Predict the structure of Pentatricopeptide repeat (PPR-like) superfamily protein isoform 1.
Amino acid sequence: MENLMIPCTSKPPVIIPTKHENLSEFSQTPTKLAFSNTKKTNNPKISDSHLNYLSRNGRLTEAITALDSIAQSGSQVRANTFINLLQACIDFGSLELGRKLHARVHLVKESDPFVETKLVSMYAKCGSFVDARKVFDKMKERNLYAWSAMIGACSRELRWKEVVELFFLMMEDGVLPDEILFPKFLQACANCGDVRTGRLLHSLVIRLGMVCFARVSNSVLAVYAKCGKLSSARRFFENMNERDIVTWNSMILAYCQKGENDEAYGLFYGMWKDGIQPCLVTWNILINSYNQLGQCDVAMGLMKEMEISRIIPDVFTWTSMISGLAQNGRRWQALCLFKEMLLAGIKPNGVTITSAVSACASLRVLNMGREIHSIALKKGIIDNVLVGNSLIDMYAKCGELEAARQVFDKIEERDVYTWNSMVAGYCQAGYCGKAYELFMKMRESDLKPNVITWNTMISGYIQNGDEDRAMDLFQRMEQDGKIRRNTASWNAFIAGYVQLGEIDKAFGVFRQMQSCSVSSNSVTILSILPGCANLVAAKKVKEIHGCVLRRNLEFVLSISNSLIDTYAKSGNILYSRIIFDGMSTRDIISWNSIIGGYVLHGCSDAALDLFNQMRKLGLKPNRGTFLSIILAHGIAGMVDEGKQIFSSISDNYEIIPAVEHYAAMIDVYGRSGRLGEAVEFIEDMPIEPDSSVWTSLLTASRIHRDIALAVLAGERLLDLEPANILINRVMFQIYVLSGKLDDPLKVRKLEKENILRRSLGHSWIEVRNTVHKFVTGDQSKPCADLLYSWVKSIAREVNIHDHHGRFFLEEEEKEETGGVHSEKLTLAFALIGLPYSPRSIRIVKNTRMCSNCHLTAKYISLKFGCEIYLSDRKCFHHFKNGQCSCGDYW
């Protein structure tokens, strides 16, 4: 706009003095002219040509001194000369000299509106919008160029509403916009969402016959597109006589911003039919849009098509892809693409580096993070505050707090996020004292802690077990910090308590939120649900589900997925399936949650059926899916099919099996009694077996009474976890059964490490929102005599005899020496200690259920016609009609 003003294009040609004139002029010009209030002196006359010479060479101070001399001599300067001086101020960005020139505007010979117009431009471009507006408002005669100058100034300052106001003032003055101003007004309407004024401008454009100008037409289209009026935009687009690349890009961008990528893609190929080849901007619009929608594969395909079309991807293209992959959980792929970008010779920008570093932070890959840090230093991008913040976050998450602090200390202009990243780093590492020191320094600085800072400190203290300090900050944030608590402040407490295992306290905070009318959000729900993923909290899950429905959060995918998982783990697989079936959108986590839930409940047929449905829909299974499906084949006794699935992980899906997949295959072999194949499978493993693999083999050898194999598996476990009390207890039993107690070194080692101390089992049951706890052998309960009497009578009915000669490996001592096990006492309390007979009983136990108790629970479920859900350290048991979902394999 500025280049089209009359003062810049219509000024008279500069008069170049002759050599003689220059010599005479310079010979008479003093080296320094001082302003004085004395009488007129016989100073030599200074010509306009000399002033023009000074302005062209940027000698503005001398020009102002020369103007003072002109004032003393009673002379004046031409308007064009003064305009040239103002232009020089614009070129050199000198507001101070511009003000001095403004003070001498009275020296202009004739009143000229173009001088005032140039003053408006000078103030606007030199950074004083207020002065520009003052000059404009005082103008008596405002022509089109004056309006252009003021509107251009507003546009540069992004004062879009003022631009719209100027349009109406301009119309009142009787000045009509031209093909240059119309796009400015339309751009203002688009940016401030004023579609009503946009329609008015559209009608004016038609009446003035300006539609023929491509720039004007494209601006009209942009108004409808940016204001979300896609139908109006599309009608205007279809009626345009001529469409250029800008037209197509505007329409494609409009659809992309609305998430209607299919329509945008259709227009993209419509360009080719119209004879217009997509440019770099077109490709970037589509690629970025697909990445934002999480469709990274489509975006990657477009990038390849782009290269085939001989359009070279620029830094925006690469950054969009890297950022899109990282934000959609494909962080390794994002880092690989970052390396490809460097090999392609594209210099990354701040956003590229930030995205790559953030991916390293999430993956905890310190070495790669350091490499990217080095690249940022070499490319000169390290001063970018976003890069600095991401580096602090990356080093902190990787446990390198010293490196994080070094980056923090080197950032000169820190923002709130810089401080928050460092504070969070200390809190996550457990250094709440250092975090608090930094927190107090921040309070003393110009940047005060915001609500995120306070919440980070609260979360740090509560997660590190310092409840008192967390509560102190929670109460002080409104009083001392003048920061209003938000939902995240409450969420910090809930998440902290859940992490500490203090579920009742977490629920107390959750209920207090409801009573204080604090709106719980998806983070609240996702924070508290993991604490309810057990049988004791079954009623709490329903309470949270009710809150989800009241808050209209049931359509949030992550919440639905979490509810499926939590309901399954709390014993209600039916509700899990109802939620799954009611979901309009499902991702891989949804399928994994419901399949895993069925496997947990021993429902292998349902799990395998869902897996087949998933594959028919074209969904690609991941590691979690395969883990559940291998276990499902084991439950179903389908060994050969399980082997095929295991092989397909790497052969068909190019996924490297993890150690848990190998442990699951041992479970498959073990359940079917094919222990020899299980041992061969372990020997052929390409990775080192861990404790999960040997535990699976030990379980199989226990069930199938293979003492020799139990010794092998047990000793491997003992090598891996020599301090594990439960493993040592089982090993002692193995030595008893195998007759190896004559080895004095092994017995002495067990006694020396005090492994044979009593390991008490604990069981919990919730009745009417109260959790009751029972301990093995505990006789302190008021109704203990009644409970013990009932347990003995049940034992007689079941006719469970001493089984010392059998091959059972238990984590607890036998009831003859350690007392009645906690789960039996809990069952007795549920059946005779309550005023009603429950149809379902839900119990949580801290150790593995023994064979005796397992048989008793099966008998009770048959005799009393109730369902018993019991979750122990090893397995989830659902007893019904005398059978258990584990198939007596746990």
In short: The first helix runs from residue 6 to 9. The two ends are 79 Å apart (CA to CA).
